[in-house]
Every structure is written in C-alpha cells, then in structure tokens.
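Below is how a single chain appears once it has passed through the pipeline. First comes the sequence as given, then the structure the pipeline wrote out for it. We keep one example in the README because the format questions we get most often are answered faster by looking than by reading.
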Amino acid sequence: MAAIDKINRRITLVAPDGKRATYKVSKDAINFDQIRVGDRVKVTVIEELAVFLRKAGTPPSIGEGAEVALAPKGAMPGGVVAETAEVTARIVAVDT
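Resulting structure:
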C-alpha cells in the first residue's frame, strides 16, 4: 500500500512491476481503518469492456450499479467491490 486518503476513501497500490493505481474504497468497508501505508495486500483487479450495438434512434441512457461484499467486523480487512456503468453513445471512429 503506497498511500491512503482516508477522507476521500482512496488507496494507492503498487503492483510488483512498479505500476501504481488508485482505487476508491466503498463506504461500507468495515475494516478500512485497520489498513496502513506499507501493508501488503492481496488484490485482484479485473477490468472488462462490453460493447453492444443498438438500432439507430434508440434513446440515450446512462446507468450505474455497484455490489459490495465485506469481511466481518474484527476480521482481516477484505471484500469484493463490483461496479458497472452503462452509457449509450455514438461511435464516431474505429482504430483497428
């Protein structure tokens, strides 16, 4: 753990290859107060992108959702956070 912003609930992690990434921690994370800079954490990050084509004239839409599963109070900090977002947009270019 390279940095913790407790006010904005963000953590910065450093991967074994030195790459840094900052993540938002859910407000439901019960044991967030237990982690410290320098702690080693096990994290699996999966990013996916799905593109669906719709007929022209379909009204634009935006949607978001989140699911959180947390470690019980007093246990080692841990949990799973899944966030999704849906945006309807017009494709203006494709770079293969």
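The mean pLDDT is 79.

See the next section for the split statistics.
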